[in-house]
Design brief:
Blueprint: E1 2-7, H1 10-20, E2 27-32, E3 42-43, H2 51-60, E4 65-68, H3 72-76, H4 78-84, E5 93-94, H5 98-105, H6 107-116, E6 124-128, H7 132-140, E7 146-150, E8 159-162, H8 165-176, E9 187-192, E10 197-205, E11 210-212, E12 217-218, E13 221-223, E14 227-230, E15 235-238, H9 245-265, E16 272-281, E17 284-291, H10 298-302, H11 310-318, E18 333-340, E19 367-371, E20 374-376, E21 382-384, E22 388-396, H12 399-410, H13 426-432
Parallel strand pairs: 1-2, 1-4, 2-3, 4-5
Antiparallel strand pairs: 6-9, 7-8, 7-9, 10-11, 10-16, 12-15, 13-14, 15-18, 16-17, 18-22, 19-22, 20-21
Amino acid sequence: MNILLLGSGGREHAFAWKIVNSQNCTKLFVAPGNAGTAEIAENVSLSINDFEAIINFVIDHQINMVVVGPEEPLVRGIVDHFQKNESTKDIPIIGPSQEGARMEGSKDFSKQFMERHGIPTAASATFTKENLEDGIAFIEKQSIPVVLKADGLAAGKGVLICQSHQEAKDSLKEMLVDGMFGEASSKVVVEQFLDGIELSVFVATDGKSYKILPEAKDYKRIGEADTGLNTGGMGAVSPVPFADEAFMQKVEERVVIPTVNGLEKENIRYTGFLFIGLMNIGGDPYVIEYNVRMGDPETQAVLPRIKSDFVDLLHAMGTMQLENYEIELQAFTTTTVVMVAGGYPGTYPKGDLITGLKGISHSTNTSLVFHAGTCHNKTGDIVTNGGRVIAVTGIGENIENALSNAYQTVSSISWNQHYFRKDIGQDILKLVK
């Protein structure tokens, strides 16, 4: 198959690596891609939100399947756009419809969906600028800490955990009135804080059948010991020791099955990946959020653990044949460490020369190097082009080996003022010892 992959981050480089290693991939195009995808596929200068240009490219290049990496084009309705076009309506496109993408595009929509289908989640209420005073009154009745979530997409940064009622009330005003997160916070979900251990569960679905992929735990804060600002993700570990068979059975019965069935009952077309952010509270799963695509950097930890053919999985999803797909997993552990630009998640420079990449293999038995915010400069050197720049995934027979392999590779890569967390997986290590 000729395949088009949309996106430019570490998740997409991991997808590209997995796709080109399939015997079912003839040619892979990545739009717009990064310096890492350029080494294994053909990058295409297309905007992920220019649907007409994407459709024209698909027709001109006889593309047999389209894989949508990030959430924004899904929320904007790229799948619906393809299916309304006579020339592309029969081409498998991996991602949910615009209505399905509301599971991530609107926190309020997803909370109401959970309530309708009896899916365990934190108690919450939603407010706008018009009923700000009701929101303030609601906050005063909540225990501390209290969680505030921008309703719309905010690049993974629209969640505030407030440690006092005053902070929560001030933040609600900043979000609703002052537009802290722009249009995304024109509506805010105020939510009960769930105290437990977080993990991410990934589901592939064709709208009827589903397959549960390897779970992962990610690390969202910029600082060690989970301090500082939220980021898009600073690292990940898979598998997660506390996600044992008994816990995952609860996840499947209480969350995955009612979610997939609920989408079907509501006639919401959903062909793609569903990322379920969970909290393990005393052995019981509670849903924090849905995302309508694979996570980043969890993808970089999860995909290496899938042994069976990845293109087969994608095609089975896109052609409603997922029930016939047998997923095989690797027994090893993976740990991903994200290297970021100095100043991230605030302001940061771009264009810094990255050294050490030429001296290491991007794919070995012990580590994998995935590019995120990278590009080539005019002289062909690889330079920084974003906040999260490189993700290194270590592979090992246990978490200690995997972490050692990841950090060994990280130590060989550098650029001006690069930063990474040195404590990825340390909490998991304590659990297994």
